[in-house]
Amino acid sequence: MQYWEVKEDQRVAAPVPGQGVQQVVPSETKFPLGDPNWDINDANHRTHLIDLKEMILEGIRRAVPQSTNLTKAFEVNQMKEESPGDFIQRIRDHLTKYSGVAPDSPAFDNLLKMQFVTKAWPDIQKKLQKMNWQDAAIIDLIEDEEQIDPMVWADGKMPFHLYVTISSQTAVGVLAQKRGRYQPVAYLSRTLEPVVRAWPTCIQVVAAAAELVVESRKLTFGGALIVHSPHQISTVLTGAASTWMTDGRLTHYETVLRTSPDITLGTDRNLNPAEFLIGERKEWEPDEHDCLGTIQLMAKVREDLSETPLTMGERWYIDGSSYVKEGKRKSGYAVVKEDGEVIESGALPANWSAQKSEIMALTRALELARGLEVTIWTDSRYAWGVVHTFGRTWRDRGRGILAQRPPLLEQQHSFQPGDLVLIKTWKAEKLSPGWDGPFRVLLITESAVRTREYGWTHYHRVKRAPPERWTAIPSLDDPLKIRITKSGTGNQGRTVRQ
């Protein structure tokens, strides 16, 4: 109740302009001793309930005893590289935890000021002694201050300007305000995600702008924000972004950059302050460029490739599929002319997916159309994306990473199911190779065989078992008796006789 009376006195002492004289609400109204029969649907009663909750919580906070440890409360010292703001916050935390004084009381404020001045004075005195006060004029002091920290405090009433660029897989930006001249408010940087790094530069800037706008929101507090970039962010979002990113990511970028009424996207090829954060400005960059045309040029696997059908030449249709028929999976492809003539068709390995079959159909169509003017039609978005979007990116990634090898379209060995083979093993005692077997081959792939004893084994560790050899040895005791033996290769690499 005392808390409420103090709060009411402060409210009446500072009236709101235009509302007239404020009446003091007695504490008995807010803290009734009996059942007040308040209705939650009534606005005034809801206000009473909220005020009552605050009074109860404040009473609990004041009633809970706080531990007092003055040694820990006063042992805080400023670190070498610690700023004054961080230091005073550490002092406040220690006093709140160990002094036993209420943080909102005047005694706490006096204690905080005394501790800060006492502990920070040696550092302040040391920095002041470095300045030549006798010879320094006031204009020199102002110039020194501007060189130490050129940034200014943000003014929420003025529009903010965010300059965005990218360099070395990092989004870099400068948040500034125009006060006579543009003055920086904050320097921003965020590392781009691995998925974003594979995109063309013009699309990477869209992701960079969205990331830096989210960071800028922590400083603009809802103020107007104008995004400056040498790239056409709005055009890229509308035109080419959907080809390179998922619907969820595109929706996120549009929500951040286009749906907010206080954000303006601009294309500005003038001096971009963000470029100076990464070094000198690149002279080879054109002052203006078409982002959509640049994206298409960077994504094309060849310059004469186009999405527009040719007016001359033939029209081919391709398709690839993978389906299950009578419990068995089958895959295949076909290349057909416009009049229905089948140019080529064939079966593919059963373990191939529909997307891989589509790529095979497209590959064969391109090989068969060498030297011809052909428009190839497909209903596969995956195959279309490989040619127009990701093909060049995949090719460029392969350069310098690993040597690209063609897929195993042909069988690499001559083993067949039913053959007898030996499998290379290693003896533990001397770590020397040996051959185990013979074993019967059950299944094969292009590069492996499967046996019941060892499962799948690469064909490099498999060789054919030598043919069985029968030998008849006459008995020395009885000329009418002979001994028949069968020889083969055993576990130790030597002949075993049974």
TrEMBL record:
- Upper lineage: Eukaryota, Metazoa, Chordata, Craniata, Vertebrata
Molecular function (Gene Ontology), one example: RNA-directed DNA polymerase activity
The identity of this protein, by name, is: RNase H type-1 domain-containing protein
Under the heading InterPro entries, the entry gives: DNA/RNA_pol_sf, Gag_P30, MLVIN_C, Retrov_capsid_N, Retroviral_Gag-Pol_poly, RNaseH-like_sf, RNaseH_domain, RNaseH_sf
Task: Name all RNase H type-1 domain ranges.
Answer: 310-450
Superkingdom is Eukaryota
Keywords, in A-Z order: Endonuclease, Hydrolase, Nuclease, Nucleotidyltransferase, RNA-directed DNA polymerase, Transferase
One BP annotation, GO: virion assembly
